[in-house]
Amino acid sequence: MPHESGHHHPSDQNLPAAGPAAPGYGPPRTHRARHAHRRRTLRRVTWGALGLALIGGGGVAYGWQHLNGNIQGTDVGAALGKDRPAEGRDGAMNILLLGSDSRAGTGGRYGQGVSGARADTAMVLHVDRTHHKASVVSIPRDTVVQRPACGTSDGAGPSAAQRAMFNSSYATGGPACTVKTVEAMSGVRMDHYLEVDFKGFQKLIDELGGVDITTHKAINDEGSHLHLTAGKHRLKGEQALALVRTRHSVGDGSDLARIQLQQAFVKALIRRAESVDPLASPAKSYELADTATRSISADSDLASADKLLGLAKELKGVTPDNTNMVTLPVTYDPQDPGRVLPLAKASHEVWSAVRQDRPIPESATGASVGDRSDSPVTAGG
Predict the structure, then answer these.
(1) What is the pLDDT of residues 230-244, one digit of tens each?
(2) Which residues contact 349 (CB under 8 A, 6 or more apart)?
(3) Can you give the pLDDT at residue 304?
(4) Highest mean pLDDT among 23-32, 88-97, 135-144, 240-249
(5) Using the 8-state DSSP alphabet, how is residue 132 labeled?
(6) Nearest by Cα to 185 from 355, 328, 17
(7) Cα separations in angstroms, 120 against 97, 98, 142, 155, 171
(8) So what's the pLDDT on residue 120?
């Protein structure tokens, strides 16, 4: 079925067919508001010149070059070729956020006998053209999809698969294959991808001093080693990682309940990052930037410190309160209750809204098995 960009979706009935106003003006600023505005501006300037936190002019050049050297880049565009959805217009942006379950460097704590890595967490971040609102679509890792061929133009590489689990795309063909799979199932072009692995995620949270969340009931999961009473908590790296991996002690024990935890945690992480004042401790700010750039992999167009900081500035206006997070509408697979299938019509509504830079309608997720309970965790302590 043709969609707005002129490309075609897979015909499988269970796979989706491949879719703001300018910010208003508030009341006159008070002295406090003006002070807060100046402080935010100073933060942006400081982040834009992290090298100034180092010693002397030579330190500036060295520090910036060091951050650039931390970031791993992948030329996703070369692997994807030209058969892709049309590029977005008017400044809207789509970024595929991946959480890799690579066990490298974790001493086997998060699973034995697991080779390689998979896209354990996948979220499509859509930033609207004003860069003040965003939508996040989480794709369950257990979603059965029609995975496209992920080989090169000469035919080398993985072939297409009719019934593949979504998170196998990463193990099959790396981040480029995951990007290609998302584009094929959504009809939405990914402008960038960003990835963080277990070890990097844990260290970054520790560098931030922890993240605040509130649990609405006790969580006890032997699989992820997480034990939390109901109430407010500040989670350090190891507990935070356990939270976003927990599944057996929340909801129906599936990946769908874990997605709710991940979405709540992302909002909490944004709030915590917003509270960090680079002016208060330039050295600490540089440590955070060093850890973040060591933890991140990105497409080659984004794999430099200045480009990442430029992206951070562009997204500065997006806050947790104006970010709408949903799960791709799915139903349980009758052939395998441990898997889920996209609801064709509802998924089409979600992706069409993203393509057309519109808010995702609440009705699109109403019938999904992924939206039948409230999240057991909320952001903030």
Answers:
(1) 999 999 999 998 888
(2) 19, 329, 360, 361, 363, 364
(3) 86
(4) 135-144
(5) S
(6) 17
(7) 11, 7, 9, 27, 10
(8) 75
Cα distance between residue 312 and residue 328, in whole Å: 26
How far is the CA of 5 from the CAs of 9, 180, 183, 187, in angstroms?
A: 11, 16, 12, 8
Q: Which residue has the higher pLDDT, 333 or 284?
A: 333
Backbone angles phi, psi at 94, to 5 degrees: -125, 125
Say if residue 267 is exposed, middle or buried (CB neighbours under 10 Å; 0-12, 13-18, 19+): buried
Sign of the torsion formed by the C-alpha atoms of 150, 168, 198 and 372:
positive
Written as one letter, the residue type at 274 is: E
Instruction: Report the distance separating Cα 230 and Cα 170, nearest Å.
Output: 35
Q: What is the pTM of this model?
A: 0.77
The mean pLDDT value of the chain amounts to 77
CB 190 within 8 A of CB 96: yes
219 strand-pairing partners:
228
Give the Cα separation of 76 and 215 in Å (integer). Answer: 38
In degrees and rounded to multiples of 5, residue 341 shows phi and psi of -120, 140
Give the DSSP H or E segment for 59.
helix 56-70
The rounded distance, in Å, linking the Cα atoms of 250 and 370 is 13
- What share of the chain in percent tops pLDDT 90? 33
Residue 136 burial by Cβ neighbours in a 10 Å radius (0-12, 13-18, 19+): buried
Looking at residue 356, what is its pLDDT?
94
Q: Give pLDDT tens digits for 147-203.
A: 998 865 555 667 889 999 998 899 888 899 999 999 999 999 999 999 987 777 788
d(CA 42, CA 73): 29
Query: H or E element: which one contains 327?
Result: strand 323-327
Task: State residue 318 phi and psi, 5-degree precision.
Answer: -90, 120
99 vs 110: CA distance, rounded Å:
14
